[in-house]
Write a structure and sequence with these properties.
- Pfam families: PrsW-protease (PF13367).
- It comes from Lentilactobacillus kisonensis DSM 19906 = JCM 15041.
- One of its GO terms (molecular function) is peptidase activity.
- By secondary structure, the protein is mostly helical.
- The protein is 67% helix and 2% strand.
- It is built from twelve helices and two strands, in the order ααααααααααααββ.
- The protein has a two-stranded antiparallel sheet.
- Strand 1 and strand 2 form a beta hairpin.
- The radius of gyration is 21 Å and the shape is globular.
C-alpha cells in the first residue's frame, strides 16, 4: 500500500509540475483585453531568481526614486519582461534579524523594554516585506514611496475603523463556527475593499499592478495593527504565530481584491457602486478572497492542530496562485497597452514580437 501511495503521489506531483506554469496563464488570458488564443511568455517559476544574487546599492536606490513627474516612465518605456523582485528579501532579513535580537534582549537579559519593539517588528516583518515585493513588481513605477507609506498607515488604520463600524451592525458570536467565520470574512474583506476603492479612485489608478500594490499596502497595514492588537488580548506568544502566518493572510487577500477592482472598472474612470455589483471579473475574485478568509478562520469541529495547519497551507497556496494570476494578467495588460502581440512557438525558437 505504501508503494502504491508513493507512486500515486509521484504521478500527481508530476502532473502538477508540468502544468502549473501554464495554469495561471490559462486563467489570466481570459481577464485581459488580449485575444485569448495568444499566450504570453511568463516564467513565474523563475520569479524569485534574483533574490540570492548580489545587487549594488545603486540598484536598490533606483527602486525608490519612482512615482514623481520626472521619474515615472512613459507607457512605451514600461518593462513588460517577467518580474523578478529581490529587494523585499533584504527588507525581510533586516526585520528578521531585528526580531531575533529583540528576542535575545527579552529572554537573555529579562528586559521588558524589548516587548513593545518585539510586538511591532514581529507584526511588521512579513506584511511589510510582502508590500516591498509588490512595490518592486509595479512595473509602471507611478506610485511614490510617500504615497505607499501613506496608504500603508492611513489606509491600514482606516480599514480597521471601517471594519469596527461594520461589526457594530452585524451579529458576531464569540465561537468560531462556519457562520461566524463567514461573517468575519465578509466584514473584514468588505471593509478593506471599500478603503482600497477609495485610494484607487483618489490616486486615479488604472493598471492591475497598481491595484495589487494599493491592496497590498492596505492589507499590510491592517495586518500589522491587527496583530499588534491581538497581543494585548491573547499574550506575547501570539506574535510568534501571527508573524509567519502573515505570508498568506490580509496582505495577499487585499492584493487580490485590489487587482480585481482594476479588472472590474472602466479604464480611466473611477470604480463605482454599480461596478461592485455588475462586474463579474471583480466580484468573483472578491468572493474568493472572502472564502479564503472564512476558510482560514473556520475552526472545523472535532479536528486537531494538524487539520488547522492543513487549512492554512491550502489557503496560502490558493492565495499565492491567485497573486500569480494577477501578475500574469498585469504583464498581459502592459503588452496590450503597448500594442504588442506575443506569439510563442512550441519549439525552442525565440518568441516573435509583432507590432500591431
Amino acid at each position: 500500500m505504501k508503494k502504491i501511495g508513493r507512486n500515486f503521489f509521484s504521478l500527481v506531483w508530476t502532473g502538477v509540475r508540468r502544468n502549473y506554469d501554464n495554469l495561471d496563464d490559462n486563467i489570466a488570458k481570459h481577464l485581459g483585453e488580449t485575444d485569448a488564443d495568444n499566450p504570453v511568455e511568463i516564467h513565474l517559476s523563475r520569479m524569485f531568481s534574483e533574490v540570492f544574487k548580489r545587487h549594488s546599492k545603486d540598484e536598490a536606490d533606483r527602486l525608490f526614486i519612482v512615482g514623481t513627474r520626472s521619474t515615472t516612465p512613459s507607457l512605451r518605456k514600461v518593462s513588460s519582461r517577467p518580474v523578478k523582485p529581490w529587494f523585499f528579501s533584504r527588507v525581510f532579513t533586516v526585520l528578521a534579524v531585528s526580531f531575533i535580537m529583540l528576542i535575545l534582549l527579552l529572554f537573555l537579559f529579562k528586559s521588558n523594554k524589548a516587548i513593545p519593539g518585539l510586538i511591532f517588528i514581529g507584526s511588521l516583518a512579513v506584511p511589510f516585506s510582502l508590500l516591498m515585493m509588490f512595490f518592486e513588481i509595479n512595473v509602471y513605477q507611478n506610485i511614490s514611496v510617500l504615497q505607499l507609506l501613506t496608504t500603508f498607515l492611513v489606509g491600514g488604520i482606516l480599514s480597521l475603523l471601517v471594519t469596527m463600524t461594520f461589526y457594530m451592525m452585524l451579529p458576531i458570536r464569540s465561537e468560531v463556527s462556519i457562520e461566524s467565520a463567514l461573517i468575519v470574512g465578509i466584514t473584514e474583506e468588505l471593509a478593506k475593499c471599500v478603503v482600497i476603492i477609495f485610494f484607487i479612485n483618489l490616486y486615479k489608478l488604472n493598471y492591475i499592478f497598481n491595484g495589487v500594490l494599493i491592496g497590498a499596502a492596505i492589507g499590510a497595514g491592517f495586518s500589522v495593527f491587527e496583530s499588534s492588537g491581538y497581543v494585548s488580548e491573547y499574550g506575547l506568544a501570539t506574535i510568534f504565530t501571527r508573524s509567519f502566518q502573515a505570508i498568506g493572510t490580509h496582505t495577499i487577500w487585499a492584493a487580490i481584491i485590489g487587482g480585481a477592482i482594476i479588472l472590474g472598472k472602466q479604464r480611466k474612470h473611477p470604480f463605482t457602486i454599480r461596478d461592485f455589483f455588475t462586474k463579474p471579473r471583480f466580484f468573483v475574485f472578491f468572493l474568493i478572497a472572502v472564502c479564503l478568509h472564512t476558510f482560514w478562520d473556520w475552526d472545523i469541529p472535532y479536528t486537531g492542530i494538524e487539520i488547522s495547519l492543513l487549512q492554512e497551507f491550502v489557503d496560502v497556496i490558493i492565495g499565492w496562485f491567485l497573486i500569480f494570476v494577477m501578475i500574469d494578467a498585469g504583464l498581459r495588460e502592459v503588452k496590450t497597452l503597448q500594442g504588442q502581440q506575443i506569439v510563442i512557438h512550441r519549439t525552442k525558437r525565440k518568441p516573435l514580437v509583432k507590432k500591431g
